[in-house]
Amino acid sequence: MQTSTIRTLVNCLSHTQSLARLRVSLFISTMLLFPGANAAEDVSSLIQKFWHAESLEARATAADEIVAAKIPVSKLIEELSAGRLHHDGVPTGIVLDSRVSDTGLELPYALIVPQTYDPERSYPVEFMLHGGVGRGPWEEGAIYWRRGYEALASEDKITIVPAGWRDAHWWHEEQATNLPAILRRVKRDYNVDDNRVTMSGVSDGGTGSYFYAFKQSTPFAAFLPFIGNAGVLRNPQSGGGFWLFFENLRSKPLFIVNSENDPLYPAASIEPFISILDRAEVNHEFTVIENGGHNLDWLPDQIDRIETFKRDNPRDAFPDSVQWLTDRTDIFNRNHWLVIESRTSDEEPAIVIATRSGNKYEVNASSVGQFSLLLSPNEIDFSDPVTVVVNGEEKFSGMVEQSSATLLKWAQEDLDRTMLFSAELAISLED
Questions:
Q1: pLDDT tier at 40 (50, 70, 90 boundaries)?
Q2: How many CB atoms lie within 10 A of CB 68?
Q3: Which residues make Cβ contacts (< 8 Å) with residue 51, sequence separation at least 6?
Q4: CA-CA distance, 287 to 290, in Å (whole number)?
Q5: Where are the alpha helices (DSSP H) in 280-363?
Q6: How far apart are CA 260 and CA 269, in angstroms?
Q7: What does DSSP say about strands 254-259 and 284-289: parallel, antiparallel, or unpaired?
């Protein structure tokens, strides 16, 4: 064999060995980055297992598996944002279901899904809270919406009609947990536009809409209380007795309708409340139905305005400024990326007003022991330091590390692909 031929064979063999070593190196690198996930489809399957989990326990288990896989946070955010949260082959039309609360109470609800529902299209969702919550429990086969579910049917949105009664008023904590849980379940099954979830309500349902606007507005884009009265929430005999902080209503816009001759809540009795909204600079529209009673006879004439209001007010998942007041820290203590963790006074509400500009947070706080800021890569440059100034004093300045565990913790809580948080920064004011 000629020397040149031998040299060529040796060079080919060396090149083949180099390629083999390169493949092994790439394989090992992939395994180091994604232990237990050998390819991109394995990462995606983990994400789908997380989104499609049938229970909180199953989703927590899926989250643990994702954390164990050591997927880089940037890749995980990309996969979570693009993940297919919903299922195919889901029922359409009127769908009756229920969930059981932690106390064992069965809480029925109805979904009105477009007959032409397309899983490739995202749909707005509207909660519709009925009135008359002082009645007894709903019997099997009862229709929670007096005018019939067909009256709420639309090919352009999904409507959720929960059941409320004297043991489960809209402003009871049982429902305060139930309604967000129903929303998460609907998101698991249907393609929901996360930033176009609204809450409407009639009579007691209108009062219930006020409750969520005052207490836990984060998932919602807007609130539409019809012929209701927020003052009911102050009355302990109604199951309420809540502190109401009008500053919280600045978080989301309100479309309010009351009737002139309503024997329960005449428009004139609501006007002092509207005056407070004006002084508090709450974004709202107030409509008085002339000669109207305690009914929805006016609705056909107002429906175009109502739908325009909802279209014009999508949710901003990451507002630059948030404000929140709360008298509790076990519940009702969050507004988007702000969570109030502890209070320093039982006599005064905890108050936090926070504004973000780039990586800097300016915060004014009162009666607060500790609060947390939830940080999103959509808003924060994690390659630069984050600074937090509270009441004129710098409380934190430094690098913040993103965490898969934190990302999945809040993804489980919100089930919201448009509002992901990869870091949580706790600020203590009790030092």
A1: low
A2: 13
A3: 83, 84, 85, 188, 415
A4: 9
A5: 299-312
A6: 10
A7: parallel
Beta carbons within 8 Å of 65's beta carbon, 6+ residues apart: 36, 46, 49
| Residue 38: strand, helix, or coil | coil
- The C-alpha atoms of residue 115 and residue 7 are separated, in whole angstroms, by 72
d(CA 401, CA 178): 33
* pLDDT tens digit sequence for 345-392: 999 999 999 999 999 999 999 999 999 999 999 999 999 999 999 999
**Given the DSSP bridges, would you call strands 386-390 and 360-366 parallel, antiparallel or unpaired?**
parallel
Instruction: Provide the pairing of β-strand 334-335 with 106-113.
Output: unpaired
Q: What is the rounded CA–CA span in Å between residue 318 and residue 419? A: 7
Name the pairing type of β-strands 338-343 and 334-335: antiparallel
Give the pLDDT of residue 238. 77
Cβ contact 171:69 at 8 Å: no
Secondary structure of residue 212 in the 3-state scheme:
helix
CA 430 – CA 421 distance, rounded (Å): 25
Token pair for residue 10?
């040796």
CA distance readout (Å), 127 to 6, 215, 250? 78, 16, 20
